[in-house]
Amino acid sequence: MSDYDHLASDDQAAVTAAASAVELADAPVPAAAFRALADHTLRAVVDEVLAGAGRQLLAVDGGWLAGYDDAVADRLAAEGIGVLAPQDRAVLTLVLLHTVAIPRARGRRDGDRWTDAEPVELDELAKSRALSKQAIRRSVRRLRSLGVLRQGHRPPIAPGPQLDRLTPERSQRLWEDLLLLCQPDGMMATTIRRRRTSRGAQPTDGDEEDRP
User: Fold this and answer.
1) Is the link from the previous residue into 156 a cis peptide, with omega within 30 of 0?
2) Is there a contact between 51 and 69 (Cβ–Cβ < 8 Å)?
3) How far is the C-alpha of 166 from the C-alpha of 153, rounded, in Å?
4) What is the DSSP letter of 28?
């Protein structure tokens, strides 16, 4: 029997409510909002319940969300489940470069969340000329429907709540992919490729999107 099965009925209800909240919320859920998140013992049971579905609790900006366990996310991606189409990955990469990577490099942002971003206009993304404005607009629409970009019918465009559901490992991997894309011949890129090869991971060129 699991730890959940040993709980009193009111504690089970508290755990179920907390697990549902961290799965459905767009923003981190404050621990104070749910007894099972505020209590360390019950929070461990929430994590256990989520693990049954391949998920895990993630501490995000003083609150909690649920995201896929890294091993489960890797298996899903290997099977092509939850992987963005190439055009949508390209547009997401453009968005992350303009809204997060460039502002941080210029000292305008110092947070560690992908959603701590400076929104970008569609016309700015279209300056890349790699994709047409119409193609970018279609991808933005799809990415918004998935929560990968912030909801809304009009620009500006910014990262969405699903990116807060990346584990620290996957978030770091995404940062590394951006670095490999921007400075493929730099010393950091060489270090990243060497480290990934040594642990059995395939080097990437930024064209794979992790499942949140």
Assistant:
1) yes
2) yes
3) 25
4) P
Q: Is the Cα dihedral 70, 76, 81, 87 positive or negative?
A: positive
Pairing of strands 29-30, 63-68: antiparallel
From the number of C-beta atoms within 10 Å of its C-beta (0-12, 13-18, 19+), residue 12 rates as: middle
74-78, 100-104, 167-171, 196-200, range with the lowest pLDDT = 196-200
Question: pLDDT tens digit string along 72-117?
Answer: 999 999 999 999 999 999 999 999 999 999 998 888 888 789 999 9
Residue with tokens 């910014």: 158
What predicted TM-score, i.e. pTM, was given to this entire model?
Answer: 0.84
Q: Would you give the DSSP letter of residue 84?
A: P
Q: What are the backbone angles phi and psi of residue 104, rounded to the nearest 5°?
A: -70, -40
Task: Output the six-digit token pair for 4.
Answer: 């959940």
Q: What is the pLDDT of residues 119-141, one digit of tens each?
A: 999 999 999 888 999 999 999 99
Tell me the CB-side half-sphere exposure of residue 197, using CA atoms within 13 A.
6
Instruction: Give the C-alpha distances (Å, rounded to integers) separating 44 from 3, 38, 48, 113.
Output: 9, 11, 6, 24
For 86-198, CATH number out of 3.90.1520, 2.10.25, 1.10.10, 1.10.287 equals 1.10.10
Residues 132, 181: Cα–Cα separation, whole Å? 20
Single-letter residue type at 195: R
**Residue 22: enclosing H or E segment and its boundaries?**
helix 9-24
